[in-house]
């Protein structure tokens, strides 16, 4: 299972096996895990119909605010596809009493997890704010609910239409980016409410007028069409008082008419083929099935897990591991409110006949329908789902926290506690109930799409609209009918947990913090390795070694490992950054002991079986193929050698490796890497758990405390001075035909290292490229609407910290976008430095967002590792408020002006050279055109692909 369970190696191949006693401890029953998933709530309804749900969680001085509207793509009539999503964007552009961008007042108060999303069923807006800012958040949400239309102008409509169209291009530009459109059209008639995708069509978006979008708002965005959830440091009485104050005066509006959306069954199997610029053939099979509230949906969830959701699933085991016909295979059951989509996706192994794979899919599904799942498969799916829900309970808001569970249940099922019923129904499934649901729905005709490599099929929506100068949206005057924005109270201070250090008997350092919000343990076994440890002449060695860890130990096969992990509800994954390689474990603490036994066995005793190496190596080569058809993947391979130079180990950042080198890797190469880098004398263990240190340490002693380093020498990394060997300024254009969008990646070498004081630089960059309100993003996204989003920031590593920029832009504005970015950077470092307003926003936002930023154990675990890597004190974040307050505007401008020299910038652009090169030639930098096919391999790690 490649990178996902890619556990970090454990030491020498000769290490002793971990104790097995702990493995024999029975996993906690599914019912026990389900009981741990609980979100108590209270609710009330205002006279205008607004439903309000309140969940109290005092773990941190923050409150999640989540507003869900009963309007989504399924409510859009013909000719107005994409309207719900377009309006989601417009509602961030200000309202009558808060007329500027909503991100500004949210940033000022330190909001975290603030965004909005749209799907077929609903539109939602959410933010997590300090308790002291709850008044302001409710004022903003109520103002855009009840007082929006006076602030919606033609210029704002034009801006956000352009942004949404670039969001569409960004998705379409990916490999297989057109598949979902084909599947929707293949399963459902165009007249069905779910018969078009949420993003809509370019033509309908172009046709949207100011009057039609205002009519859309009047028809749907009213309190009686909404659910408001407040979750966190708030009680019912406070919620009732504030919600009544801010929302009570908004009149009810028309009730959204329920969509008539029956489950559609095809009259006969439907088979289609499409071509795309992809690396592997993909076979997609789908059925339309019942939606969220149908009793059979949970049975279909289990069927999807057993067929292709679990690591041990039948499709993955048979097609990928046993018969080696595919490089990946998965199944899923996506449930919308009224209908669902059951699907299978298989990436065919290169050289294998897709017809053979299709036949085997038919046979595997038929066998599943004949026999049904086993009782153990049912339990493993339920345990895995319950464990994931427990981990999600730690967050009050965001994309998947407690507020989401309550709002979704209220809006779609008229029951905020529906999440509990779902889990109880899941735990109650039996082989017979799952078989019955699968028989009923998967026995019906299906839609099958095969995507084969070739020129991309033409599609009408790829047409770039005619160029037109669009005036910037004028400032909308404040009506002031509700008074000004509420003032903020005193923000509670960050309570970062105390960090304790200890050592196991063998000397491995243990860095521990306790968090008791959820009964979960998260652990990172971190090795001093990272991308810098990869073998220079065999790039991809580390990735393959990690990919092999869960593919078998001396006592367990890969399927046994997956099944054991699933019974425990554990997640085991691995990965690396520039400096460190880590294997991670997340598990309900009730199963900590057996999970650690499995974890230690994976880390200490990987078998590196020859047959499994051959199979996983082929999968990694397929992954490389995918990277080489992905615009961001291409850019990430080309830039590092240019930025860092041949002598820097950081130049080895080339995705999953060099395909020629990976194809030649042997078991001996993997063992050598493991013994040099994945060993106890290069390891530290970071843990955040609800269990006390003594208990955690005792469990680690039993499984890792007797782990000894091999006699072979440990690996050594050597770094040149940062920025000393970068390429000269230039533009490298990677030619990727059929690209409706270009990906721009810029980098500026610096002399910085991550162990220096980076806070002044990162704070200054908040205004340049580090936030939504940064100058680069506001310029290309909001002012020019050439991009869906632009980011810039310091790529902080232990021995280097260059400045990097990422900007996907519409193809016909590639050259002007590079010119605009260069101008934005030069202005910021020169005549237009950070202003007092930008400084105040960055400082106050940085301080006030601390409690939200460190709400979860995962965030604390990452911070502990960063502090250790960059040699900061363990209490760094407990002191960061004082550090912020000590900063001054002149200090920040001087620091970033000294750190970045824009004249040294290197640019990599991935796009259609025929369209893009003439634009880039006008910039004044040397332009080198590189065919995408030449990016795959280079003889040395620091050598950039040769221009043609």
Give the rounded overall mean pLDDT. 92
Distance between the termini: 37 Å
List unreliable stretches of 5+ residues. Answer: 1-23, 461-465, 939-943
Strand content: 15-25%
- Which structural class best describes the helix and strand composition? alpha+beta
What is the number of strand segments? 23
Largest beta sheet, briefly? Answer: 6 strands, mixed
List the helices and strands and how they pair.
Layout: H1 2-5, H2 30-35, E1 42-45, E2 51-56, E3 62-69, H3 83-90, H4 103-108, E4 112-118, E5 123-130, H5 134-146, H6 154-172, H7 179-187, H8 202-207, H9 210-220, E6 226-232, H10 236-247, E7 270-276, E8 282-290, H11 297-309, H12 314-322, E9 326-335, E10 339-348, H13 354-371, H14 375-392, H15 402-413, H16 418-427, H17 431-442, E11 447-453, E12 500-503, E13 509-514, E14 520-527, H18 541-548, H19 558-568, E15 571-576, E16 581-588, H20 592-604, H21 610-627, H22 631-644, H23 659-663, H24 667-677, E17 683-689, H25 693-704, E18 731-735, E19 741-748, H26 759-768, H27 775-783, E20 791-794, E21 803-810, H28 814-829, H29 836-848, H30 850-853, H31 857-869, H32 880-886, H33 889-899, E22 906-911, H34 913-921, E23 927-931
């Amino acid at each position: 299972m490649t990178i996902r369970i890619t556990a970090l190696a454990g030491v020498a191949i000769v290490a002793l096996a971990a104790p097995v006693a702990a493995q024999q401890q029975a996993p906690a029953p599914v019912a026990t895990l389900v009981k741990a998933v609980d979100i108590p709530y209270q609710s009330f309804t205002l006279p205008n119909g607004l439903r309000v749900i309140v969940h109290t969680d005092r773990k941190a001085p923050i409150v999640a605010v989540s507003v869900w509207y009963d309007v989504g793509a399924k409510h859009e009539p013909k000719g107005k596809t994409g309207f719900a999503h377009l309006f989601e964007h417009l509602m961030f552009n200000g309202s009558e009493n808060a007329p500027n961008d909503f991100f500004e007042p949210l940033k000022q108060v330190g909001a975290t997890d603030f965004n909005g999303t749209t799907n077929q069923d609903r539109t939602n807006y959410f933010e997590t704010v300090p308790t002291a800012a709850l008044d302001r958040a409710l004022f903003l949400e109520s103002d855009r609910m009840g007082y929006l239309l006076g602030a919606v102008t033609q210029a704002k409509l034009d801006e956000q239409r352009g942004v949404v169209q670039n969001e569409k291009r960004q998705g379409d530009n990916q490999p297989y980016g057109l598949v979902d459109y084909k599947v929707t059209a293949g399963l459902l008639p165009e007249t069905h409410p779910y018969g078009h995708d949420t993003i809509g069509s370019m033509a309908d978006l172009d046709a949207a007028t100011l009057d039609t979008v205002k009519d859309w708002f009047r028809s749907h965005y009213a309190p009686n069409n909404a659910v408001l959830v407040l979750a966190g440091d708030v009680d019912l009485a406070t919620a009732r008082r504030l919600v009544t104050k801010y929302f009570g005066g908004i009149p009810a509006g028309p009730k959204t008419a329920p969509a008539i959306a029956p489950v559609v069954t095809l009259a006969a199997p439907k088979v289609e083929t499409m071509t795309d610029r992809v690396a592997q053939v993909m076979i997609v099979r789908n059925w339309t099935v019942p939606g969220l509230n149908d009793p059979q949906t949970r049975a279909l969830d289990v069927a999807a897990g057993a067929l292709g959701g679990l690591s041990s699933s039948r499709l993955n085991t048979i097609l990928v591991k046993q018969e080696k016909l595919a490089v990946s295979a998965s199944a899923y059951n996506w449930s919308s409110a009224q209908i669902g989509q059951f699907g299978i996706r298989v990436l065919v192994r290169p050289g294998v006949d897709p017809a053979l794979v299709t036949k085997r899919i038919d046979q595997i599904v038929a066998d599943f329908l004949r026999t049904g799942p086993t009782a153990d498969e049912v339990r493993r799916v339920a345990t895995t789902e319950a464990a994931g829900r427990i981990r999600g309970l730690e967050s009050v808001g965001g994309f998947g926290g407690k507020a989401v569970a309550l709002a979704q249940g209220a809006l779609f099922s008229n029951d905020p506690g529906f999440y509990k019923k779902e889990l109880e129904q899941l735990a109650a499934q039996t082989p017979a109930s799952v078989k019955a649901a699968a028989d009923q729905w998967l026995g019906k005709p299906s839609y099958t799409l095969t995507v084969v490599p070739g020129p991309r099929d033409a599609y009408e929506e790829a047409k770039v609209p005619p160029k037109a100068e669009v005036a910037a949206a004028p400032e909308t005057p404040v009506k002031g009918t509700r008074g000004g924005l509420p003032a903020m109270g005193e923000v509670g201070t960050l309570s970062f947990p105390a960090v304790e250090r200890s050592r196991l008997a063998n000397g491995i350092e243990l860095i521990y913090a306790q968090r008791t919000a959820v009964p979960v343990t998260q652990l990172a076994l971190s090795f001093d390795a990272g991308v810098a440890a990869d073998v220079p002449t065999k790039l991809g060695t580390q990735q393959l070694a990690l990919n092999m860890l869960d593919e078998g130990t001396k006592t367990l096969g890969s399927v046994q490992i997956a099944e054991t992990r699933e019974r425990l509800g554990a997640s085991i994954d691995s990965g690396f950054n520039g400096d460190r390689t880590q294997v991670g474990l997340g598990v309900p603490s009730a199963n900590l002991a057996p999970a650690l036994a499995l974890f230690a066995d994976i880390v200490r005793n990987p078998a590196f079986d020859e047959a499994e190496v051959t199979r996983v190596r082929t999968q990694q080569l397929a992954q490389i193929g995918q990277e080489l058809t992905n615009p961001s993947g291409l850019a990430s391979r080309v830039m590092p050698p240019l930025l860092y130079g041949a002598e820097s180990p950081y130049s080895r950042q080339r995705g999953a490796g060099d395909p020629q080198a990976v194809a030649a890797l042997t078991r001996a190469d993997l063992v050598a890497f493991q013994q040099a880098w994945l060993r106890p004398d290069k390891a530290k263990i970071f843990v955040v758990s609800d269990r006390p240190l003594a208990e955690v340490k005792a469990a680690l002693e039993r499984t890792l405390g007797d782990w000894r380093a091999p006699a072979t020498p440990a690996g050594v990394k050597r770094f040149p001075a940062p920025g000393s060997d970068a390429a000269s300024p230039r533009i490298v254009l990677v030619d990727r035909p059929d690209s409706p969008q270009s990906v721009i990646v810029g980098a500026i070498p610096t002399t910085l290292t991550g162990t220096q004081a980076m806070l002044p630089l990162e704070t200054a960059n908040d205004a340049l490229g580090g936030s939504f309100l940064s100058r680069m993003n506001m310029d290309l996204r909001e002012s020019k609407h050439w991009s869906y989003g632009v980011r810039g920031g310091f790529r902080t590593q232990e021995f280097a910290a260059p400045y990097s920029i990422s900007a996907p832009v519409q193809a016909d504005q590639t050259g002007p976008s590079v010119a605009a970015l260069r101008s934005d950077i030069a202005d910021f470092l020169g005549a237009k430095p950070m202003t007092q307003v930008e400084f105040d926003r960055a400082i106050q936002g940085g301080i006030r967002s601390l409690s939200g930023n460190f709400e979860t154990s995962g965030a604390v675990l990452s911070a502990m590792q960063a502090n250790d890597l960059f040699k900061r004190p363990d209490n760094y974040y407990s002191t960061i408020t004082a550090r912020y307050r000590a900063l001054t505007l002149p200090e920040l401008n001087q620091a970033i002006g000294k750190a970045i020299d824009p004249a040294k910038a290197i640019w990599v652009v991935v796009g259609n050279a025929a369209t893009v090169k003439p634009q880039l030639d006008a910039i004044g930098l040397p332009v080198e055109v590189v065919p995408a096919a030449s990016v795959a391999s280079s003889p040395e790690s620091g050598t950039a692909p040769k221009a043609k």
